[in-house]
Design goal:
Largest sheet: 4 strands, antiparallel
Shape: globular
Number of strands: 8
Distance between the termini: 43 Å
Order of helices and strands: HHHEHHEEEEEEEH
Helix content: 25-40%
Structural class: alpha+beta
Strand order of the largest sheet: 3-4-5-6
Strand content: 15-25%
Length: 197
């Protein structure tokens, strides 16, 4: 993790009903918080490779790639090194999850980095406005290894974990962030609003 401390992660995961404390205690999960200003790209790659070869790590999550790239922006070969690391992990059958934030919240959203050519699967999260509320949508935009759902669905994080709503069939422009409502699709928050009436 480059973006937040372990304490913050544990508090947030508990709030979502995803307490990972037992997995940390048993050794099934290891979380390393890194200051990218103190770790070179080569050192980071060596740490990951050692975890795979010596500890048998099968899943690697980098949160977030943005913080890693910004903190190490002086290295012009950083993207090439990330490409080599991902290729290495793929050859060992390691599941790699990269968190990459895009610039902007609504409308024209861009990314400084495109690793889609290295990705077997991509899940996209977007904000959209509907009924005077800022909501979140999720969609699978790429899967090389299997068929995947093509719908865009509302989602939210709460005390009971991740909630997935109905397919947003009556909306247009959800992925652009400029939404137009065309029907009666129920939203996750509609039951809360009805209870207040």
């Amino acid at each position: 993790m480059f973006d937040e401390g372990l304490g913050t992660l544990l508090i947030r995961s508990r709030a979502l009903g995803l307490d990972v404390g037992a997995f940390l205690e048993s050794g099934q999960l290891e979380i390393k918080t890194l200051d990218p200003a103190e770790v070179s790209p080569g050192q980071f790659a060596n740490m990951v490779c050692a975890a795979v070869e010596q500890a048998g790590v099968q899943t690697v999550v980098i949160d977030s790639l943005n913080a890693y790239l910004q903190a190490m922006s002086g290295d012009k070969h950083l993207i090439l090194q990330m490409h080599e690391l991902l290729t290495y992990l793929n050859q060992f059958g390691v599941v790699t999850i990269l968190i990459l934030a895009q610039h902007g919240v609504l409308g024209d959203i861009r990314s400084d980095l495109d690793l889609s050519y290295l990705s077997d699967g991509m899940v996209l999260f977007r904000f959209f406005e509907a009924r005077g509320r800022l909501l979140k949508a999720v969609s699978v935009i790429k899967s090389r290894t299997s068929l995947h759902e093509l719908t865009i669905r509302e989602f939210r994080l709460g005390k009971s974990g991740v909630e997935i709503g109905e397919a947003l069939e009556d909306f247009e422009g959800v992925m652009s962030g400029i939404t137009s409502y065309k029907g009666t699709t129920p939203l996750l928050g509609d039951t809360l609003l009805a209870g207040r009436g």
